[in-house]
Amino acid sequence: MDIICMGEMLIDFTPGKEERSYVCNPGGAPANACIAIARNGLETGFLGRLGNDDFGKLLKKTLEDNQVKMLCPELTDKAVTTLAFVTLYEGGERSFTFVRKPGADIMLDAKDITEEMLADTKMLHAGSFGMSADPSRTAHFEAMKLAKKLGKLISYDVNYRNMIWSFEDAKKVVDEVLPYVDLLKISDEELDFVGGEANIPAMMKENQISVVIETLGAKGAKFFFAGQEETVEGHKVKAVDATGAGDAFWGGFLASLLMNGVTTADDLTVDKIREALKYGNASGGLCVQKMGGIPALPTKEEIEAFLK
């Protein structure tokens, strides 16, 4: 398997064409990234819990339709599938209102993690949303510890949502996560988690992080690697919905690295990172031109055509 993405998969209710109407779309950052990578022809697995309800069954079918292996195939009765209501603003930007007290995604347990599972993958990807409460938080740490022990690349998305937990609580968890991370994604709005942009090189050295990618929205993304910094510009497109765009970008970025043979930190080069950012920017640029998270994720063929 090329990558395991762990954490939340949920329902995004995005605004419909009629006033005060919503359209039900599958979403959730790790699941979005997972399917974005799968649409590049790579072998992916999703490690997360879905509710034993109509929404959970819809999400399970979405994974199956995208050839993603469900590593926790049994739906849980302990909580219902998490829901997110999306408000859109001019330019495609959005905010979220979550229904999750708790949600099924929080029911991921350390017992769901096995060494055999992680030994069978090249990379593990996770984010902070699924670490806002136990038992999922402990499960995430268990997976990252095992992945580190097995020499697997670990990708992490800060992905802070203030409706879910406080900055102070989230930062404590992120600080504890950083020593396990090889590839860190952080937005320009989340720089306080690493002490500001100027502190990124020192933070990388302290935690032995190989690459930090700072996302800059429509402006593209900036990489920090081996003492170098460089911004790769994004694409000027008409954005209608930014839901899932960051995950489309990161899925494209990780897919490009994997397609270029990156399976350890030693395989990383400036050229591979730069190429992966261009590929990720194209993936994100295509995503924002359509409504909904997962339905808007592009295929490898669409990204390659866009780049030409």
Task: Characterize this entry briefly.
The chain has 308 residues and is α/β, with parallel strands linked by helices. The protein is built from nine helices and 13 strands.
Comma- or semicolon-separated keywords:
4-stranded mixed sheet, 308 residues, single chain, alpha/beta, 9-stranded mixed sheet
Describe the structure.
The protein has 308 residues and is an alpha/beta fold. The chain is 33% helix and 21% strand. Helix 5 (167-177) links the parallel strand 9 (153-157) and strand 10. It is globular, with a radius of gyration of 18 Å.
Question: Would you spell out the secondary-structure blueprint of this structure?
Answer:
Layout lengths: L2 E4 L3 E6 L6 E6 L1 H10 L5 E4 L6 H12 L2 E3 L12 E6 L5 E6 L15 H5 L3 E5 L8 H14 L3 E5 L9 H11 L5 E5 L12 H8 L3 E5 L5 E5 L2 E5 L12 H15 L10 H18 L12 H8 L1
Helix pairs in contact: 1-7, 7-8, 8-9
Number of extended strands = 13
Q: Can you count the helices?
A: 9
Question: Hey, roughly how much beta strand do the residues contain?
Answer: 15-25%
Give the neighbour order of strands across the main sheet: 5-4-1-8-9-10-11-12-13
Portion of residues within helices: 25-40%
| Assembly state of the chains shown | single chain
Which stretches are low in confidence, meaning pLDDT under 50 for 5 or more residues running? none
Mean pLDDT score? 94
Distance between the termini: 29 Å
Could you say which overall geometry the principal axes of the C-alpha atoms support? globular
